[in-house]
Design goal:
With 259 residues, the chain is mainly α. It is built from 14 helices and two strands; from the N terminus they run E-H-E-H-H-H-H-H-H-H-H-H-H-H-H-H. Strands 1-2 form a two-stranded antiparallel sheet. It starts with a strand and ends with a helix.
């Protein structure tokens, strides 16, 4: 499949939006550069996962992970991390899928920008899926281990978002270690919980977010991304202790070490 790449400048162009709705983009050469990329297969997958129940969102993520792993992640990294590639694919090859599954784009330019041509960063659902699949598929060969860590990502999405927000933590080693620590200590529920009685932190702060904040604040004095898992575990507990009573967690950790 050949995909013509867009020229920059389309994101805030309302005429571009109207032409998408009227199926006129592909026939207008003014929107495209001379670059064409080729991909063997480009199946549909959920591109926006902000609506529905918690379980429905997880199912959408799982579907996206599966399609990404099978058809997209084996392309060059420069391609599957390229904003122009994804936006070009969506507006030229996925128009019918988008209109059917995300009808809000037909009534709002803002929704079009948020769903179809959203900046390719940690807030973009395709970006979230690309990184998770790249990290997990590269790190593990065993299908069961892959499934385990995909599920850990889904059980800790808020924390995952904060990890990929910071460039220093945006790598497979750190993500896998953090998810392993959370799983071993059984603290996913704590990390997702809102911090109460701390008006200085805002109205929707979570323990996991503050842990990542503290690790980021201490960098490069403490090189968290390079620590072995046992040392990182101590840093995670220390960071959590600034906001939560970790005495029970420390006790459980000692029991695990001696079991």
């Amino acid at each position: 499949m050949e995909i013509k790449l867009l020229k920059p400048g389309y994101k805030n162009n309302e005429q571009f939006y109207r032409d998408f709705l009227e199926d006129k983009i592909i026939s207008n050469d003014d929107y495209f550069s001379n670059e064409i990329v080729t991909i063997a297969n480009a199946p549909d997958f959920p591109i926006y996962i902000a609506e529905g129940t918690g379980e429905e969102k997880k199912q959408s993520f799982r579907q996206a992970f599966q399609v990404m792993a099978s058809f997209y992640i084996n392309t060059d990294r420069d391609l599957h991390l390229d904003e122009l590639f994804w936006h070009s694919l969506l507006v030229t090859k996925k128009r019918e899928y988008i209109l059917e599954n995300y009808p809000d784009v037909t009534t709002s330019f803002g929704d079009f920008k948020n769903i179809v041509v959203k900046s390719f960063d940690w807030q973009n659902y395709i970006y979230k899926c690309v990184l998770a699949v790249e990290y997990i598929e590269d790190y593990f060969n065993n299908a069961e281990e892959k499934d385990r860590y995909y599920n850990l990502v889904l059980e800790n999405l808020d924390l995952y978002n904060y990890i990929i927000k910071y460039s220093i933590f945006r790598n497979a080693e750190f993500l896998i270690k953090i998810l392993t620590i959370i799983d071993e200590l059984d603290i996913s529920g704590i990390m997702k919980a809102k911090i109460k009685d701390r008006p200085d932190l805002g109205t929707d702060e979570r323990y996991g977010r503050r842990v990542i904040f503290e690790l980021n604040k201490n960098y490069p004095v403490i090189m968290s991304p390079l620590l072995d898992i046992d040392s990182l575990k101590q840093e995670v507990i220390q960071a959590l202790s600034y906001y939560y009573d970790v005495s029970e967690i420390r006790k459980n950790m000692l029991q695990l070490e001696h079991s």
